[in-house]
Amino acid sequence: VRLVESGGGLVQPGGSLRLSCVASGFPFSSYAMSWYRQAPEKERELVASISNLGRMTNYADSVKGRFTCSRDNAKNTVLLQMNSLKPEDMSVYYCQVKVRGTEYWGQGTQVTVSS
User: Fold this and answer.
1) CA neighbours within 13 Å on the CB side: how many for 48?
2) Distance of CA 9 to the CA centre of its chain
3) How far apart are CA 97 and CA 2, in angstroms?
């Protein structure tokens, strides 16, 4: 299993970023996918999750209405569109999947929100 995130960077408050996670090594369309984030000295927290066919999504209260999670099963890719970014969204964002009881994580992509 391999997960590779991209799309992080520096953005001003109120700006937008789109994160991508390309997956390989497992039947992508059979598994739900999730995005987590972890800020310095804080615990990793669940940001969004999406069902295997993309019909259901769940979001942390702190990002509802601002973030949208989607997936393209033909490209083995899960996306996180982040709008109206706030300084408190600054974190390393990770893609995650649980395959046959084992959790797998990407290397993470840094999102910095600063003026």
Assistant:
1) 21
2) 14
3) 10
